[in-house]
Every structure is written in structure tokens, then in C-alpha cells.
Design goal:
Blueprint lengths: L1 H8 L10 H21 L4 E2 L1 H17 L2 H4 L9 H10 L1 H25 L2 E2 L1 H26 L4 H27 L6 H4 L4 H12 L1 H13 L3 H29 L17 E2 L1 H26 L4 H7 L4 H6 L2 H27 L3 E2 H14 L2 H8 L7 H29 L2 H4 L9 H26 L4 H56 L1
Antiparallel strand pairs: 1-2, 3-4
Helix pairs in contact: 1-2, 3-6, 3-7, 3-13, 5-6, 6-7, 6-12, 6-17, 7-8, 8-10, 8-11, 11-12, 13-16, 13-17, 13-18, 16-18, 16-19, 16-21, 16-22, 17-19, 18-19, 19-21, 21-22
């Protein structure tokens, strides 16, 4: 055992991504240590179920933050534009900010358990403590949304976020104290201390910002909100500052720990991004039915008196609400379908893709608000038209950021995308059309509601009906379009070749 230990200590530290030849001794050394740790500590468990539970819980917490916004009462005789100005200034802005902050904690959780691959009872309990505080965040958000100028709401949110960050730091310290819990690369490294301090430095940056925000809440609340917003973009600001500094100094960027950085191309678990996204889509689709169950079930006395005991006639009055529900569910389902198709071809997800996916999910989380607004007001009213336009904007932004994920993946398509989807192929054209469909339709619908405002409701519902059939026929439409484009280019090729020959003959004549 001593000879084996000496051999392992001679292995150099390395990042997660290495060549196959370099990985063999590293994995063998790490696996020896992990096997010894496993034999000495029989309580080791796989982290898969813990991570699935955490992803489900965080996705629920992030999505239900929209409920305080949805439950804001808007009088039917009040101008929606005036009400939305109040909402956008407070509740909607706070919802988007807190949704993104919760997903920052989730991304930190992903990266943390990319380092710690095995868990024991202590780590499971620490993670439960972290999840308990995360589930309390919607209440603190409700305080912030209802009392934006009161320091208690933002202070309670910051305190919870600070404790969550400290618990994650304790998990890091405990994991490095029990190295058999770490992944094979770090476990076999001689320089685990550098890894630990780098990871702790990154983990504690967010709690430090929350502490500053908490202090600023006693001085001036708007500044505290600005500091909270910085937490979302701090990694990218830090990375951009470092990059600019290195360019000015003429130095090359040196990363001792290449897999726990702020770089946009840093790998992020694709499986956990998919699990979290599926959770958000599922919860949003479920939230749509809550208002139907609560508001669209008639009272027995009303049915007996007004409709002479005929329940069917009573339910007919709720027809527009049911139509809006089914249309909204189809929209959520098709956006999930596009998301599923996109990540089916992504082989490696990055930190930048994770950020774009988070912003898209934040707008998808706002669809219950759009659903409520579309059936809140009287038909053909000015408020109903504005509610439909808001729905178009939410759908457009949610689908546009899905398209942005695709663009980010194309930036390094050989590494990020499956080879079947590379630029220039039929599948690439089909994926482009699939991602472009919802942004295009939402934008056209929004413009038509301005031009033909009298028919805005009919146009919106027609869009909801046409889009599913468009997805069914999309592959046929793309193939027909490719055939037409191929034919057009083939017709243009002879002309361009003749022109090229004439130019060559002119050039040769001039030379002679």
C-alpha cells in the first residue's frame, strides 16, 4: 500500500479534460484511493437521486415565484397599461431578478457536485439544509414584491442567500477533508489545496455580494437591488475584466483550475440543465390549471337558480377561459418540444448556454401571468388587446433565447453539437426552422394586433391553432424549401460561370 501511495503522489495534477493516455494512471490512482475510502466508509452513496431531488425542488421554487405577480388584482375598469407600469416597476422586475438569482444558486450546485461525485449522510443532510433555505426564498420574494421600499424583505432574502452560500462552502471543505468523495481527477492530484481554495473563492463570491446588498438595504434600497442584479452577471463581468487586463498587459490567461472558472465555455452538466428545464416546463403547465380549478367551477346555488340545474349551460359561460387554457398549454408544450429537440443534438453544454437557457425559462415562467391576463378582461376591450400583446412578447422572448442557445452552440459546433446537425446539412436547416417558428409567429401576431386591433383575439387564437400543425408539417416544408433553393442556385450557376469565363477572357486579353 505504501508503494502504491508513492506512485499516486507522483501523478501530476491536471484539469478534467485530458487525453486518453494521460487519464489512465490518473484514474487508476484516484480509483485506488476511492476504493480504500469506500471500504473504510461503508456509508458512501451515489449522488444521482440527491441531485434529481435538488433539481426538482429548485425548479419548483424558481417557477412559483410568479404566483405573487399572477395574484395581483387588476380592476376591469382600470387601464391595463397603468397597472402594468406599477407591476413592471416592482413585481415583474423583482420576479425576473430573483428567478435568475435562484438559478445562480442552482448553477453553483451543479458545479459543486461536478467536483463531489460521492456523498455520505453528512453531505446529504447539509444539502437538505441548503434546500430548506431555498424553499423559503419565495416567501422572501413575496415580501420584496409587496414592500419593495422596506428593507426587511430584501434583508430576509439576502440572509437566506448568504446562509445557502455558506452551507455550500461547508460542503466544499467537508468534501476535501474526505477526498474519497471527490472525482477521480482531484482525488489523485497532489495539489488538492489549490483546488479547494479556488473553489471556495468562487463559491463565496456570491454570499459576499449578498452581504453588501444587505448592508446597502439599511442605507438605500434601490442600490441594494442593483447589487443583487450584479450577482447574476458578476461571473461574466469578472471574466471580461480579467480578459481585458490580460490583453492590455500582453499576458496569457493562466488557469490553475480550468473547470471551476467564470469562462463562458466552462462545461456545465447537460443532464442537470435538462432536468431543471423539464421541471420548470412541467410546473408552468400545471400552474395554468390552478386558476381554472379555482375560478371556473360554478357554485351549486348559482347553477340551480340561474341555470335551472343545468351544469352544462353554466360551464358554457367559461368557454373563453377553457380556450385560453388549452392554447396556453399547447404553447408551453411546444416550447418544451423545441427545447427537447435542441438539447437532443447538443453534446456539450457550457456556462453561456446555461445562462441563456435560464433567461428563456424566466420568460416561460411568466406564461401563467399571460394566460391570466388574456381572459381577465371583457372581449374586444382595450385591456384585452394589450394582454394579448403582452402574451406575444413573452412567447417571443422565451423562444428567442432558445434560438440564442443554438447560436452559442454553433460558435464551436464541432465540440458542442452532434455531427449530424453541423452547418450546411438538412438537419441543420430543419433545426433552424424549428427554432425560428415561434419567434417569427409571435412577432407577426404582435404586429397584426396593432394593425388589425379589432380582430386581435381571433388572430391570437388562430396563431395558437396554426403553430401545432406547422410543427407537424415543418419537415415537409423545409424539404420543399431546400429543393426550391437548390433549383434556384443551380439555375444561377451557369450564368455565374459564363460571367467568370468572360472576366477571365477580358483579363487575359488585357495582359496580352
Amino acid at each position: 500500500e505504501e508503494e502504491e501511495e508513492e506512485e499516486v503522489m507522483e501523478v501530476e495534477a491536471s484539469p478534467l479534460v485530458r487525453s486518453a493516455t494521460a487519464d489512465e494512471p490518473l484514474q487508476s490512482g484516484g480509483s485506488r484511493r476511492r476504493e480504500r475510502g469506500h471500504s473504510a466508509h461503508g456509508g458512501l452513496q451515489s449522488s444521482h437521486r440527491l441531485l434529481a431531488y435538488s433539481d426538482a425542488l429548485i425548479s419548483i421554487v424558481a417557477t412559483v415565484m410568479i404566483l405573487p405577480v399572477c395574484h395581483t388584482k387588476i380592476r376591469t375598469d382600470q387601464e391595463l397599461e397603468e397597472s402594468l407600469q406599477q407591476l413592471l416597476a416592482t413585481k415583474i422586475a423583482v420576479y425576473i431578478m430573483t428567478f435568475l438569482i435562484v438559478t445562480v444558486a442552482w448553477a453553483s450546485h451543479i458545479r459543486l457536485f461536478q467536483v463531489i461525485e460521492q456523498i455520505d449522510d453528512v453531505l446529504a443532510l447539509l444539502n437538505l439544509a441548503c434546500m430548506m433555505l431555498i424553499t423559503f426564498l419565495p416567501y422572501t420574494f413575496s415580501l420584496m414584491a409587496s414592500f419593495p421600499d422596506d428593507k426587511l424583505g430584501i434583508l430576509s432574502f439576502c440572509v437566506c442567500a448568504i446562509i445557502i452560500g455558506l452551507i455550500q462552502a461547508i460542503i466544499v471543505i467537508y468534501g476535501f477533508h474526505q477526498p474519497y468523495l471527490l472525482n477521480a481527477h482531484i482525488c489523485a492530484s497532489n495539489d488538492r489545496t489549490s483546488y479547494k481554495y479556488q473553489i471556495l473563492k468562487v463559491t463565496l463570491q456570491a454570499p459576499g455580494m449578498f452581504l453588501i446588498a444587505a448592508i446597502m438595504s439599511f442605507i438605500y434600497c434601490p442600490v441594494a437591488y442593483a447589487v443583487l442584479a450584479l450577482v447574476i452577471f458578476l461571473p461574466y463581468i469578472t471574466q471580461g475584466t480579467q480578459w481585458c487586463g490580460n490583453k492590455i498587459k500582453g499576458q496569457k490567461e493562466i488557469q490553475r483550475v480550468s473547470f471551476y472558472t467564470f469562462h463562458p465555455n466552462e462545461p456545465l452538466s447537460k443532464e442537470r440543465i435538462e432536468a431543471f428545464s423539464d421541471g420548470v416546463f412541467a410546473i408552468v403547465a400545471t400552474l395554468l390549471i390552478l386558476d381554472i380549478c379555482e375560478d371556473n367551477v360554478p357554485e351549486p346555488k348559482e347553477v340551480a337558480v340561474k341555470f335551472h340545474g343545468k351544469l352544462f349551460e353554466a360551464l358554457i359561460e367559461y368557454g373563453p377561459e377553457f380556450l385560453a387554457y388549452f392554447g396556453s398549454f399547447v404553447t408551453v408544450g411546444l416550447l418544451w418540444f423545441v427545447h427537447h429537440s435542441l438539447f437532443l443534438y447538443i453534446t456539450k453544454s457550457t456556462r453561456l448556454m446555461g445562462l441563456l437557457n435560464t433567461v428563456s425559462l424566466a420568460f416561460i415562467g411568466g406564461l401563467p401571468l399571460a394566460f391570466q391576463l388574456t381572459h381577465e378582461f371583457a372581449a374586444k376591450s382595450h385591456n384585452e388587446i394589450e394582454a394579448i400583446q403582452i402574451s406575444c412578447v413573452i412567447i417571443f422572448l422565451a423562444s428567442l433565447f432558445q434560438f440564442a442557445i443554438w447560436v452559442a452552440a454553433l460558435h464551436n459546433e464541432k465540440e458542442n453539437l452532434h455531427h449530424h446537425i453541423h452547418y450546411g446539412g438538412k438537419e441543420h436547416a430543419f433545426m433552424f426552422a424549428k427554432l425560428s417558428l415561434y419567434p417569427s409567429v409571435a412577432f407577426i401576431t404582435f404586429c397584426l394586433t396593432y394593425i388589425l386591433s379589432r380582430f386581435s383575439t381571433e388572430i391570437f387564437h388562430l396563431m395558437q391553432i396554426i403553430v401545432p400543425f406547422a410543427f407537424v408539417l415543418l419537415r415537409i416544408i423545409v424539404r420543399i424549401a431546400l429543393v426550391i433553393l437548390t433549383w434556384l442556385f443551380s439555375r444561377l450557376k451557369p450564368r455565374t460561370s459564363v460571367l467568370n469565363e468572360e472576366e477571365e477572357s477580358v483579363i487575359s486579353g488585357n495582359e496580352t
